[in-house]
Amino acid sequence: MTKFLETRREGAILIVTMNDPATRNALTGNTAVDELVQLCHDVERDQSVRVIVLTASGNVFSSGGNVKDMQRYFSDNKPSVDEIRNEYRQGIQRLPRALYNLDVPIIAAINGPAIGAGLDLACMCDVRIAASNAKFAESFVRVGIVPGDGGAWLLPRIVGRPVAAEMAFTGDALTAEQALACRLVSRVVAPEDLLEEALILARRIAANPGGALRMTKRLLREGEHGSLESVLETSAAYQAIAHQSPDHEEAVRAFIEKRPPRFAE
After folding, report:
1. Helix, strand, or coil here: 188?
2. What is the mean pLDDT of each run of 10 residues along the chain (265 residues)?
3. Residues forming CATH 1.10.12 domain(s) in the chain
4. Distance (Å, whole) CA 61 – CA 207
5. From its phi and psi, is residue 258 left (phi > 0), alpha (psi between -120 and 50) or beta?
6. Beta bridge partners of residue 26, listed in sequence order
């Protein structure tokens, strides 16, 4: 079976491309979840990676669930309710857990439609940059199902509950400009400029020390659901670690000496 992901490095940047255009980069019925989860585990152990750019080949970012594969749910050999529930737990639900717990910043470079679980995958990333031809739909209701991969938790935290509710209840798609207006994406660029714009941002992020980046992402995630007191306590602990790091010393010395910092790889 062909690998779903292609990866390449540019210094501290890991560029990850979903490469199954025949299925419009579907996330089910293939090795997508296993490969993305394994990627997270590998990056967690590789301290040289400071930022990930996630994009896709073809003209679709991701179509989400493979609709043709869903026919098995009403076939003669259809799985039981318990089997389906466990399928989700051991399948696509591993994806938001892996990406949410990954400390490395992730930029989604959305090259085309991000539909259903494809939209939710984009929402699992920290920053979203869209090509002008991209579209976004929380479209589960259109095929008679619900967001099974965490979209009901992710989307309202990004666009707010009213917009998320309208998207989820109608299944209607947003254009790239509409996505920008509701802050689903942070910028919209020409399709031919998408990857380079994502890399420009990635280079700015990767210019900072890796340890501080990972702790900063962890704090931002903690701030989404933790109390002020718990976030302050975690911040104090992380700050104690950061102050004792060689990167902090190098950054301060470089600032005082008016030179670019030279962080360890």
Report:
1. strand
2. 90 97 93 96 95 97 87 84 91 94 96 97 97 97 92 96 97 98 97 97 96 94 91 94 92 92 82
3. 210-257
4. 27
5. left
6. 64
In CATH, what class is 5-206? alpha beta
d(CA 163, CA 116): 15
Residue pointed to by tokens 């669930």: 65
User: Boundaries of CATH 3.90.226.10 in the chain?
Assistant: 5-206
HSE-up of 215 (CA within 13 Å, CB side)? 17
Residue 37: which of 66, 64, 4, 74 has the closest Cα?
A: 4
Question: Can you point out the beta strands (E) in 58-126?
Answer: 106-110, 114-115
- Identify the CATH assignment for 210-257 out of 1.10.3470, 3.30.1450, 1.10.10, 1.10.12: 1.10.12
